[in-house]
Amino acid sequence: MDAFRGVARLSAMIAVALVVAACQTTSMNRTDTLTTLEDDVTVIVMPANVQLVELTAGGLEEPNAQWTADATGYIHESLKSSFDDLGLTYQVLDLDTLSEQERLQEEELGKLHRAVGASIIVHRFLQVIQVRGSVLVQPKLPVMGDKFDFSLGDQVSVIRDHSGADYALFLFVKDQYSSAGRVALNVVAALLGAPVRGGTQVGYASLVDLRNGELVWFNLLARQTGDLRKAETAPETVAELLSNFPSKTTTAQ
Q1: How many angstroms from the chain centroid is the CA of residue 243?
Q2: Phi, psi of 28 (to 5 degrees)
Q3: pLDDT by residue (tens digit) across 129-169?
Q4: What's the rounded Cα separation, in Å, for the pair 244 and 86?
C-alpha cells in the first residue's frame, strides 16, 4: 500500500514537472498503440479517479470534496456523450453490483493503473538530464518503433468476468486551482518579475484489453488550463483525454 502511495505522489510530481518544463503541454498520445477497435467490441468505463484541490498562497494543496464530487459526475457524463459520438458500445461499471471481494479488487486495479501510468510517464514521455549538477525533467520526443509494453496483469479478469466487456477505460485526473490568496501573490510576484506558478491540470487515460491486461492505448494530459468544476467546461478536458481514441474498424449503416 505504501508503494502505491509513493508512486501516486511521484506521478503527480512528474506531471507538474512536465508542465513546468514545457510551459503548457496539451494531450500527447502515443503513436505506437492501438488505433482501431473491432466493430462488435464493448468497452466498460471504470470509475474515474478524480482529485480537485485548491492551492494556498503558500503552495499547499487543500482537497475540495464538493469540487471533486461535481467534477466526477461531469466527467462520467462527458464520457458517455463522447462514446455515443464515437459509436462505441459501452457500459459503465456500477459499483453497487459488485461483491465486497470484487469491489476490493476494483480498488486495487485503480491503484495499479495509477502506478503503471506513472511508470509510462517516466519511461515514455519524460527524460531526466543533468545541467551543471542540477537534475532537470523535460518532455521526451516520441520514440518511433519502440514497443509500447505495459500491463495491469491478469487480475483484470474480474472485470471481464463481471461485465463481459472486451476493454476497460481507466481515467485519472488531478486538477489544481489557485486560491484568492495565491492569485493575489501571483499578481504581486509578477509585478516584481518573479511570477508564482498557478494551478495545473494533469491526468491520463488508458484502454486496457481485458483478455490479457495489456494497455493498448494511453493518452497523457498536462497543462495549465482547463476547468472541471463546471458542467459546461468539463467536456473539453474529457475531449483532450480521449483525443485520438481508437475508432471502430467499420461504421454501422
Answers
A1: 12
A2: -130, 100
A3: 444 555 444 555 555 445 678 899 999 999 999 999 999 99
A4: 11
Residues paired with residue 12 on neighbouring β-strands, in sequence order: none
Q: SS in 3 state form for the chain?
A: CHHHHHHHHHHHHHHHHHHHHHCCEEEEECCCCCCEECCCCEEEECCCEEEEEEECCCCCEEECHHHHHHHHHHHHHHHHHHHHHHCCEEEECCHHHCCHHHHHHHHHHHHHHHHHHHHHHHHHHEEEEEECCEEEEEECCCCCCCCCCCECCHHHHHHHHHHCCCEEEEEEEEEEEECHHHHHHHHHHHHCCCCCCCCCEEEEEEEEECCCCEEEEEEEEEECCCCCCCCCCHHHHHHHHCCCCCEECCCCC
Q: List pLDDT tens digits, range 30-62.
A: 555 677 888 889 999 999 999 999 877 566 778
Cβ-contact 121, 15 below 8 angstroms? yes
Q: How far, in Å, are 11, 19, 39, 202 from residue 129 at the CA level?
A: 18, 16, 44, 22
CA 16 → CA 49, 101, 224, 251, distances in Å?
18, 35, 10, 39
The letter for the amino acid at 222 is A
The pLDDT assigned to 117 comes to 86
Phi then psi dihedrals of residue 55, to 5 deg: -90, 125
* pTM for the full predicted model: 0.78
Rounded Cα distance between 240 and 28, Å, is 9
Residue 237 has pLDDT above 70, yes or no: yes
Find the Cα–Cα–Cα–Cα dihedral 152, 157, 160, 162, rounded to 10°.
-130
